[in-house]
Design a protein that fits this description.
homodimer, about 290 residues, alpha/beta, N-(1-d-carboxylethyl)-l-norvaline Dehydrogenase, domain 2, 2 domains, 8-stranded mixed beta sheet, about 45% helix
Chain lengths: ~290, ~290
Amino acid sequence: MRIGIIGGGAIGLLFASHLSENHRVTLYTHTAEQASIINHEGIRLIVDGESRLLAGIVSKSLDEGISDEDLLIMAVKQYHLPQILPRINDIQVPLLFLQNGYGHISYLKQLQSQAIYVGVVEHGALKHDLNTVEHTGLGITRIASFKGELEQLSLVNEMFDQFPFTKSEDYHTMLVDKLVVNSVINPLTAILAVENGGLITNAYYYQLFQALFEEISGILEIQNRTESFEHVKSVCMATAENRSSMLTDLENGRKTEIDAILGHILSEAKSKGKSDCLTSSLYKMVKGKESQGG
Amino acid sequence: MRIGIIGGGAIGLLFASHLSENHRVTLYTHTAEQASIINHEGIRLIVDGESRLLAGIVSKSLDEGISDEDLLIMAVKQYHLPQILPRINDIQVPLLFLQNGYGHISYLKQLQSQAIYVGVVEHGALKHDLNTVEHTGLGITRIASFKGELEQLSLVNEMFDQFPFTKSEDYHTMLVDKLVVNSVINPLTAILAVENGGLITNAYYYQLFQALFEEISGILEIQNRTESFEHVKSVCMATAENRSSMLTDLENGRKTEIDAILGHILSEAKSKGKSDCLTSSLYKMVKGKESQGG
């Protein structure tokens, strides 16, 4: 199958590396420089300290246009989607969106493709340079259908070495589950500058963790709160040594995904008239730090 | 006049230096080591980059007991007061308390002295080492009576070079005014890791600054809110380049004054049944950072 992946960040490089085992992958990058490096040197994938060079991947700058593909995977951050949408608006190819948060769902209705899927990536990945990615945490990619039959997406039935996919029945529940995890762990770790595990082991941070979960699960009207809370906690403990993406984004003076993550929750709170004191304070803290730069 | 000053921190050293111009000062320290250094080398006071050595100050470890004094000034942090109180419980000498916050007021009622004053220090001071203090910001010391005649405290009518005193009518208003300033500026700068001015110039931080002022002035039932808000803002701008004491305490892994400052506000909120979401979140953030250590 011909798979086009849009976005040369950590997730784009990780997907290109693993999917190139079974498929003809084209990676569409923002810059011609990155495409040229990948075409000349391949992509270097680091797993458990061992480095593998993958040479069969073609890379093109997105400005060169999108070739014929059998599946197009959007691996850009949510805040970059508006720039990508005009290029895929009329495309009839199956589309898979891997963004965090929930805000991107509103974009999908305007697309012409009859097969639109959304995914939630639970892998850890770190981009070292333009063509090197480290697979820092082996996880899973959950996929659900937004439009069209999930079974028609062959990816979900394939076996990849160290890169499993799994099917989710309901895209809303799948995205909201991930949103709750991200919206509790990311802003707190970013502001408190601790590894994920610190939110559980530090008694004061744990109180903030509980209070933020309470507020957010109330805003999102999560049904099974005890189960959801235990899930967030278990993710925190399973990734105890990790620094969240939002923390490392702030540390490196990069834009964070705060709008995709807390922005959606704040607009839900507003439309439902619910209290959002802690969410809104953390939003302002992260936005303020972001605007301070590196 | 014989003046005893208890506490060899920045404020104790600053007061000892300036008051020794006109008075016989004894500085009571926590450690015998600090007393010995001061007795051998004097106190070095740095103002505007110029260093002056003050040799006439006697220093004693507090464990040696308190000598006869005409005035005793408590220059320890509020969280150290409980250790000092048993030593001054029965003393009949006039007492002056320079602590931040409001919580120490509850201690004063049990003291036997008939002349008890409270002060608010608006100087900037930085302790360089055991006998060196820098006067980083020339301010004022406000003094009000808790018990007894303010006029009997000759200090408030004396002229010191670069070290003015002023009288306040009402200790409650005086302490609450300072408490509002400290409770808005200190926790936010400590958590956001910015200089005081950053709370005004960063648009997101300014929203937090406004929200925290609203919440705290509501809890403390401040009468003249517009005036009070402008006062906090003007302090922030006048000290724009300063890093708050709470920020530098956290940066150096020291205990902060968070309990004296936000602790009192939280107990007021609780007893009045008022919302304290932002105050309580900031309290937990600072306590959590404090418990992480340096």
